[in-house]
Amino acid sequence: MAKIPDFDRTDFLLRRRLVFFILVTAYMTVFFHRMAPAVVAEDLANAFQTTGVALGSLAAAYYYIYTAMQIPAGVLADTLGSRKTVTIGSFLAGCGSILFALSADFDTAVMGRLLVGLGVSVVFVGLMKSNAVWYAEREYGRISGLTLLLGNLGSILAAGPLALLLTAVSWRQAFIGVGILSLVLALLNWIWVRNSPEDAGFPSVQEQQGLPSFPARDRHWISDLRDVVMRRDIWPGFWVNFGITGTFFAFAGLWGVPLMRDLHGLDRAGASLYTTVALFGFAIGAFKAGWLSDRIGRRKPVIVGGAALTCLFWLGLILLPWHNGWSGLLLYGGLGVVTGGFVVTYAAAKELLPPGVSGMGIALVNTGLFLGAALMQPAFGWTLDLTWDGMMNEGVRVYAAGDYQNGLWLSFSMATMALLAATRIRETWCRHV
């Protein structure tokens, strides 16, 4: 074992926490923008007079550009580094949020959502790349779970708390405020975040353990990207995220609130409580899944188990005689908890690749999640429109139980496909293979 270099451990830990705090705060705004359309769906429908498909497309505009940007985000994280990548992304997201808030017509609103999606698309991969170089391998599952736990505070704020805030301010004012926050975070990121411990004057995490540092990338990024894409054992993680997490985000981020409103007569604040519980469960599930994976030293059982339980909870929403109250909260919250097992796919992807291209691997797996959400938000709305009986309430379409059953069966089908993919995950035993 190599000699461990001298350095101030306390200074290192403080700097690592500061880097993580700034990046994870930016990540909270990513989740906020992802989930907020569920709470403001009625406002958007009134403002732009949309159908279910159009409303789904407006919300999913974020996902379209986010999905397209995941591979470029991985390349940027591996070449430019987290500091530049997340700074630029937060700036663009802030501008997009303000444009969305000020939009006078549907097309401008879509442009704003696209700009938001473009900006936030690089934040998660930049954060996970940063975690990969600031934390040891056997800490990565836990820090990934903590990342999702804290990031999900943004989605929780975009549910019940946002609904309460909208009793005092308009939805436009709320999005202007979030846009200003993103601009501030861009500045803080540029000042304080560094790409690696070495850039901040510390030895690498490997050196701190008495091990040689991982070799730096020595090829053009196109060659690295080609090798990543051609790795067959990376792709099952893509399909797990496509079918499970993408479907969950489509439901919690748009259709979960209208379902409780139309079928159970709840107002926006009451209905958003259910998606708040689902997102809180998702945050806790992700944290616990990462911890459990590191604890048992395995990745695959956690991913497969989470996928199987997700299928059961979708069936519960379809077949059980649940209602608003404890049974509905249990199903919404339970669905969030078991979906959280997806977080381990990032650790599995990272460990299948050389550390210098970990950002590309994480980005490829993450693409599946957002492609799934981008397709499922309008697809769920399409299934509702198929059997809609024409009922309207103050200019907003009202859907019946049979309409929502269509969307829930589609969600179950996607989860089943993801379970099959999970069985193809390659076990890494929590180390680079």
Structure report:
The structure is a single chain. 76% of the residues lie in helices and 1% in strands. The protein has 433 residues and is mostly helical. The chain has one domain: MFS general substrate transporter like domains (Growth Hormone, Chain: A, Up-down Bundle). A two-stranded antiparallel ribbon has the order 1-2. β1 (392-393) and β2 (396-397) form a beta hairpin. The radius of gyration is 21 Å and the shape is globular. The two termini are 20 Å apart.
Task: State the helical fraction.
Answer: over 70%
User: What count of domains describes the coordinates?
Assistant: 1
Indicate the multimeric state: single chain
| CATH level 4 superfamily | MFS general substrate transporter like domains
Please give the alpha-carbon distance between the first and last residues: 20 Å
CATH architecture: Up-down Bundle
- CA radius of gyration is 21 Å
* Model regions low in confidence, pLDDT < 50 over at least 5 residues: none
The largest pleated sheet is described as: 2 strands, antiparallel
CATH class division: Mainly Alpha
Broad shape:
globular
Strand order of the largest sheet: 1-2
Number of strands: 2
How would you classify the helix and strand content by structural class?
mainly alpha
Number of helices: 18
CATH topology: Growth Hormone, Chain: A
Order of helices and strands: HHHHHHHHHHHHHHHHHEEH
**Percentage beta strand:** under 5%
Mean pLDDT reading: 90
Short description:
By secondary structure, the protein is mostly helical. The chain has 18 helices and 2 strands.
